[in-house]
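Please decode residue identities from the backbone states below.
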């Protein structure tokens, strides 16, 4: 208990800029009342974030660490995000909105896009959506697969020379898709922790020219990374904080 409390309070301040620190800082700055996490896994993030009502969604049995903290302020839905949004979200968010969401479930473009679009339906006007794994560093890291194990198998089978055991999937396409198609969202990706996408509801002047996101390849991203992702160096986070204060 003492260890967990120490980690909660000290970790965000003394670690490099990564997802826990980014999420906890935004939660704190916005005095968030409701936090949604899609894809909880071992609870590395879910356990530490403190302050708001936390809602975690993941089809697997909650990890021990997660089970331990579950109560009326730490809720877990053991189901897919699609089922959660159709069966639970409408009444759960009837009288409260999502202030901060972290999307880190199935790492597949269309699913991530659906998770973002579903979250937007219940997001507070000034709410913020964060998305993990938006900036793959190699073709191997960006392998299109429905699980890490599948990605490993593809990397082995197709002899990807740059496979280094890290994997983001094609989450990046959901960012490119929204940057191309939705002018009512302000979107950028922080260049840290595999790329943290940040989305809020604000008119944007982004204008991307490619025709179909579906057919884009990793090479297209490599050649147009800044344009597709609106990639920002990690310290930009502190500029962003000034804007949302
Ligand atoms: C990368 S892990 C999440 C890590 C966690 N957010 C963290 O930062 O430590 C991805 C999780 O997404 C879950 N997942 C897979 N498909 C999902 C779906 N359709 N809806 C919600 N979660 C899903 C997996 O079971 C897995 O636990």
């Amino acid at each position: 208990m003492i260890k967990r409390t120490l980690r909660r309070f000290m970790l965000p301040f003394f670690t490099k800029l990564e997802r826990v620190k980014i999420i906890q800082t935004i939660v704190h700055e916005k005095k968030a009342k409701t936090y949604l996490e899609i894809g909880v896994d071992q609870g590395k993030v879910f356990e530490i974030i403190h302050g708001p009502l936390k809602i975690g969604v993941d089809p697997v049995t909650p990890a021990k660490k997660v089970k331990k903290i579950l109560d009326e302020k730490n809720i877990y839905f053991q189901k897919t995000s699609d089922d959660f949004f159709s069966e639970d979200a409408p009444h759960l968010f009837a009288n409260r909105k999502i202030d901060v969401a972290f999307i880190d479930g199935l790492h597949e473009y269309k699913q991530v896009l659906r998770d973002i679009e579903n979250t937007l339906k219940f997001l507070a006007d000034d709410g913020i959506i964060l998305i993990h794994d938006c900036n793959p560093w190699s073709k191997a890291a960006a392998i299109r697969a429905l699980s890490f194990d599948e990605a490993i198998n593809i990397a082995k089978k197709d002899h990807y020379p740059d496979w280094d055991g890290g994997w983001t999937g094609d989450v990046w396409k959901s960012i490119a898709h929204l940057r191309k198609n939705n002018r009512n969202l302000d979107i950028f990706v922080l260049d840290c922790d595999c790329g943290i996408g940040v989305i809020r509801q604000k008119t944007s002047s982004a204008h991307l020219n490619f025709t179909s996101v579906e057919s884009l390849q990793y090479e297209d991203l490599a050649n147009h990374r800044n344009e597709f992702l609106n990639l920002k160096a990690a310290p930009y986070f502190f500029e962003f904080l000034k804007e949302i204060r």
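Observation: Residues 2-14 form the longest helix (13 residues).
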